[in-house]
Amino acid sequence: MSKSTTSAVEKKLARFTQPAAIPTMEAIQSLGRTALLAIAVQVHDVGRAAYVTLAKIIVRVEDTLKPGETKFGVLREAGFKDSQIKNGSQLARVWQEFVEPGHMSEAVYDSLGFTDAVNLHAVTAKRGKDFVRSLLAMPDWMDELDHVAEHGQTRLEKKDADAAKAAKEAKALADKAEATAKAAADAAPKPEETAAEMSPSPTPASPNEPKATTGTAAPTPTNAAAKAPESAKVVKAPLPAKDRVQELRKLLAAAETLALDILTSGTPDEAREVAETVEAFAKAVSENAHAVAA
User: Fold this and answer.
1) What angle do CA 265, 273, 161 make, to 5 degrees?
2) pLDDT tens digits for 179-200?
3) 3-state secondary structure of 40
4) d(CA 99, CA 101)
5) S-S: 262 plus which of 61, 80, 266, 271, CB 3.0-4.6 Å?
6) Phi, psi of 31, rounded to the nearest 5 degrees
C-alpha cells in the first residue's frame, strides 16, 4: 500500500476513532463518587457504541469477502480476538435477520447490547421469527423479550398459565375435601344403628314380683299425672347419611363455583388465599374423620 493510500485510509479512520485511554486504578481511587459515576456512564455509552459499530463492520466485511476469505481470518488479521468476533457476530445477525428485512429500525438497533442480541436469537430459536416480529411491534418489546427469554412466555401468557394452575390446584383440593367428607360420612354410625342403641332393652321380671291373678284385670292407673319412663320416650332419628352427604355435596359444589370465579377473575394473592382456605377445610375434615373412626 502506497503512502498516499495509507494517508487516505488514516484520514477516514480519524473520523471514527480516537485514542482510547484506560485510567489507572490509582486515578480511579482518587475520584469521588459523582465523578466516578459520570465516567462510568460515558464509558458504558462508548463501549456500547463500539460494540454496535463492530457489529455493523462485521456485516460489511462479510459482504466484501473474496473466495477463500472468512470474516474470522480478516478480523483476526486486523487484531481482533475470536471472542470479540463471536460477540460482535451476535449483533451482526440481528441486523441481517431483522433490520435488513424491515422488522427493526436502525435507531432501535443502535440501542441494543450483547444480551439483547443473545435473547433475540434464543427466543427466535424457541418460538420462531414470526413470534419475535410480533414482540417487536409492542411498545415495551424489550421487557417482553427479557421475560420470554427467562420464562418462555410473555407476561400475559404467564399470568393466564398461573391462573389456570391455581384453579387446577384449588379444584384438586376441593375434590379431596369432598372425598374426605364422604369417607367421614361413611364411617359415621348409621341412623338405624343409632336408634337401636338408644332404644330401651326389655327388663326381666323380678322373682319376687307378684303374678297377676287369673281372671282379674290388671289395675289401670287413673292418675293423669302419671308419666312414662324416660327410656320409653320416642327418639328422633337423625337425617339419613346419604341425605347428609348429598347436602354436603351441594354446598361443596357451590363453594367450588365461587372458588373458580375468584381464581379466574381475581388476583394471584386471592387465588392463593382460596387454595389455602380449601386446603385448611380438607385438613380439618380429615382430622375429624380420623377422630370419629378411632
Assistant:
1) 50
2) 888 787 777 766 665 556 566 6
3) helix
4) 6
5) 266
6) -95, 150
